[in-house]
Amino acid sequence: MNKLTRRDFAKFAGMAGVGAFVLPEILMTTGCPKIGADQIVAGLQVGEEIWAAAIPIIAAGNPAAAGIMSLADVGLKDLLTLYNKFEAASATEKPGVAGQIHALLNTLTGNLSTVLADVHIKNPDLVKYIDIAVAVVNTGFGYLLKKLPTGSVAAQSSILQTQALPVIPKAKSASDLKKAWNAAVGAAHPEAMVK
After folding, report:
1. For residue 66, which of 193, 192, 195 has the smallest C-alpha distance?
2. CB-based contacts of 182: which residues, under 8 Å, 6+ apart?
3. What is the residue extent of each domain of the chain?
4. Which residues contact 125 (CB under 8 A, 6 or more apart)?
5. How confident is the prediction for the chain on average, in pLDDT?
6. How far apart (Å, rounded) are the C-alpha atoms in residues 111 and 116?
7. In the prediction, which pLDDT does 183 show?
8. Is pLDDT of 52 > 70?
9. Over the stretch 34-43, which tens digit does the pLDDT of each residue have?
10. What pLDDT is recorded for position 174?
11. Could you tell me what percent of the chain has a pLDDT over 70?
12. Are 102 and 158 in contact (CB under 8 A)?
């Protein structure tokens, strides 16, 4: 597992057009453990649940970022639907559905990057909440990418975009994602905690 420093990530993010500073304790550039379909679904569901819980918190301090997050929330629901379609697809249909998933992942990771870039606000707690929400959702994307074919240009693009965003280190389950979010928001925003 490679861990980027905040400075190294800032350099990379600037080159990638992300332009974000992310909390060093949530940075990790490589992988998720080998996971099954149930873990992927749980990770995506928790990511969407946490994302939805973050929107009202973010809206109070940064309505523009919250608007982008609302659009991404719809995409997260679509992603789960596509993943279920991928799991049910025949061997000949899987590549087409995987292509749709990669295209949606490219859009969603672009939205996550935009949200991070738009976090030019003075409230450090709000920045932390956005960072954690992005990391949780992106960790779910990493789970999903482990299951999909990686040979296409769209696949390589979604992998690279996902690697440019933060993840929750050592998260092996949806429970780990929930713990990270709840630890970040629990004291100030108990209404945003997920069960």
Report:
1. 192
2. 193, 194
3. 6-192
4. 188
5. 76
6. 9
7. 93
8. yes
9. 556 677 788 8
10. 87
11. 78
12. yes
Residue 59 CB: number of other CB atoms within 10 A? 15
Of residues 58, 82, 80, the one with CA closest to residue 68: 58
Q: How many CB atoms lie within 10 A of CB 113?
A: 22
Q: Is the dihedral of CA 75, 80, 85, 87 positive or negative?
A: positive
Alpha carbons 29 and 14: distance in angstroms, whole number: 16
- Residue written as token pair 């960790």: 139
Helices marked H in 118-152: 124-145
Contact in structure between 113 and 20 (CB atoms under 8 Å): yes
Q: Which residues, including other chains, have CB under 8 Å from residue 33's CB and lie 6 or more apart?
A: 172
CB 167 within 8 A of CB 160: no
Distance from first CA to last CA of the chain, Å, rounded?
29
Confidence of residue 19 (pLDDT cuts 50, 70, 90): very low
pLDDT digits (tens, 9 = 90+) for 139-168: 888 888 888 887 777 788 888 888 888 888
C-alpha 3: how far from chain center: 17
